[in-house]
Amino acid sequence: MKPSLSSPLPHLTLLHHASPLLPTCSRAFSSSPKPLARNRIYESIRSLPALTTTISLSTTSSTPLLTLFTISTTSPSTTRISTLLRQMLETEGIGEPEGGVGYAEVDLDAEDCRREDVAGMYLISAIPTLMAFSRGEPQQLTKVTDTAELLDREFLRLWIENEARRGGAGGAGGSPGFLGALFGLREK
User: Fold this and answer.
1) From CA 95, how far away is CA 23, in angstroms rounded?
2) Is 18:62 a contact under the CB 8 Å cutoff?
3) 122 pLDDT exceeds 60?
């Protein structure tokens, strides 16, 4: 039986027919390509609470946080490293196709950082040090302290892309330990 306009539920007949008056929406399916992630540059960090907050922000968005640990009286090479990293992340978008990264510089000379021993807490023994945080954990195994590597554009590109690919999934924080050995995970 064909519904009539005098039906007690006329809205049902409208749903059955396409109408330009009805709103439409689009929804991404799991097979839809992800939108390109953007790198995020954070302000300079000068205290442990600021670092903790920044790490939490990157963890919440499942984005690795790249940190460059420096001191206020930096050498010319540290300034060049900082400039190179910012250019690669902001202007060139290195790491964005792999999921994007966050970036912050940590000033270990700041009074609060010295008092809270941020360098000791994250085992920073050289300046500058480039280290990623993934899922809130410092990735000690991929930490870079060699100034020549930090000034090498190709090395940095590969390092950033690798950390971005990790996508906040961790994996370079330490040894696999006892349970890792049980499940076939080995140290490299």
Assistant:
1) 37
2) no
3) yes
